[in-house]
Amino acid sequence: MTADNNANSSSCPPILRGIHSALGPTLLNQILQSRILLVGSGGIGCELLKNLALSGFRNVEIIDLDTIDVSNLNRQFLFRSHHVGMPKCVVASEAALGMVPPLVTEDGKVAKYQPHHGNVCDNTKFNVPYISQFALVLNALDNVAARRRVNRLCLAASTPLVEAGTAGYLGQVTVIHKPSGTECYECQAKPTQKVYPICTIRSTPSQPVHCIVWAKELYKLCFGSKIEDSMLFEDEESLRADRESVEKEKEQEEAEGNEGNKTDNNEKSTNGDVAGGGEKSTYMDTVKELRSLLGIIIESSDKSSPPSANSDEGILRSKAQEALTALFATEIQKQIGMDRYKTADKVPVPISSEDIAK
């Protein structure tokens, strides 16, 4: 059965009938058959995936380096608390695939949303021949370097690019098509990026400037007047909500009768739990205790540790060493064990206790 026949048959999803009436059978057929590449599955990427799926696009590939952070949940609606720590592209592609209108095409092909958890700047995998396979590339990125990379790839492959992205609080979108002579992303000088996504700083720092920003946020966490002003601060309420969500997921899975589904879901739930579904970092309590010893009032909902300005120097030194060990050894070992850095160019090395003691 052809796309045209499907669009006019009673079995065709209503949403595709509307597209057929508005855009015509030729364009609908292109939508059903076109191969689309989406780079980025964060704030803009979630919206784009939803729109692609509900518009009938059935062959989409998604590239994203990031994993899901708690801070993403308030705006990236394809993610839930039990997904924290999982690759964004994997979770987003599964969610979007469930939105694709059911349709039996003439060739019998089913819809496919394929995730690639990796860096688009990896030339061994994401190069000009790879980009040439797609009818259209959509950018949904939050850093200038990756946007430049995709821009150059699309120009070299003469593949149309819809360039959308954010830089801090600013959003931009433009169409780039080399045969049409449109302006490319690098035709105009771009300002130096000064604001960085929280999830990048906390989970996947890849540039020296990310480490500088992390150090500034660590200073706020340890010595700032308001601990919650730091990107690294973990709110007790959010962690409690995550734990409750994970427990609820486990209860639902235990109640399921289908053993196969139960196994799959248990794996997902376990991944989310291990990756941080309600699990506090190894350093937060120690940092709060250090602030208390330093006499810094913690202006947050958690006031369990009263300030003590006249702490013994030996106790203070011991607590500072404990905090450094948690930050630069224990937490890094934990993140490595969770495969958080498996796509990074370099895996961080925990600092030894001997070096910290010095």
Quote the beta fraction: 5-15%
H-E string: HHHEHEHEHEHEEHHHHHHH
Please, how many helices?
14
Mean pLDDT: 79
Helix content: 40-55%
Radius of gyration: 24 Å
- The tally of strands reads 6
Question: Distance N terminus to C terminus?
Answer: 74 Å
Give the CA-based shape: elongated
Largest sheet: 6 strands, mixed
| Strand order of the biggest β-sheet | 3-2-1-4-5-6
Structural class: alpha/beta
Low-pLDDT windows of residues: 1-10, 256-277, 297-304, 306-310
Explain what this protein looks like in three dimensions.
The structure is a single chain. 46% of the residues lie in helices and 10% in strands. With 358 residues, it is α/β, with parallel strands linked by helices. The chain has a six-stranded mixed beta sheet with strand order 3-2-1-4-5-6, with helices on both faces. The longest helix is centred in the C-terminal third of the chain and has 25 residues, at 313-337. Residues 1-10, 256-277, 297-304 and 306-310 have low confidence and may be disordered.
Compile the SSE list and pairings:
Blueprint: H1 3-8, H2 14-23, H3 25-33, E1 35-39, H4 43-54, E2 59-64, H5 88-97, E3 112-117, H6 128-131, E4 136-141, H7 144-157, E5 161-167, E6 170-176, H8 198-203, H9 208-223, H10 236-255, H11 259-274, H12 284-294, H13 313-337, H14 353-357
Parallel strand pairs: 1-2, 1-4, 2-3, 4-5
Antiparallel strand pairs: 5-6
